[in-house]
Amino acid sequence: MLEVVPKIVEVLETSIRETDIVGWVEDSSTLGVVFTEIRSGDERCVQTILGRLAACIHRAVGVATPVALTCQVYSHEEVKIPAVPDQVHAKAAAASLLT
């Protein structure tokens, strides 16, 4: 099984966008990919990405090689700081967000 790992890494690195990140979660056993700019709850988009990756991986290593793909979606919501007229109020508003 370890002989297919370099092929899988190559497939992932060449299949993702420039803004996405691939790396080891657990050395030589679990690879992770961070796909940026995917909205939480966009199940169709996630399934499309997983389907395309699975197809690319199976073409590279063969369908008989067991490869598991799982997906976890984490949402990053923007924090907006309200407009404040002066620096004192701006510092107080920023500090209140940290507590």
Please render the helix and strand layout as text.
Layout: H1 5-15, E1 21-26, E2 30-34, H2 43-61, H3 87-98
Question: How would you explain this protein's 3D organization?
Answer:
There is one protein chain. With 99 residues, this protein is an alpha+beta fold. The chain has one domain (1-99). The chain is 42% helix and 11% strand. It contains three helices and two strands, in the order H-E-E-H-H. The chain has helices spanning 5-15, 43-61, 87-98, and strands at 21-26, 30-34. Helix 1 crosses helix 2 (43-61). It starts with a helix and ends with a helix.
Distance between the termini: 48 Å
Q: What order do the SSEs take from the amino end to the carboxyl end, as H and E? A: HEEHH
Spatial extent as radius of gyration: 20 Å
Number of helices: 3
Quick structural overview:
The protein has 99 residues and is α+β, with helices and mostly antiparallel strands.
Short descriptors:
99 residues, alpha+beta, two-stranded antiparallel ribbon, elongated
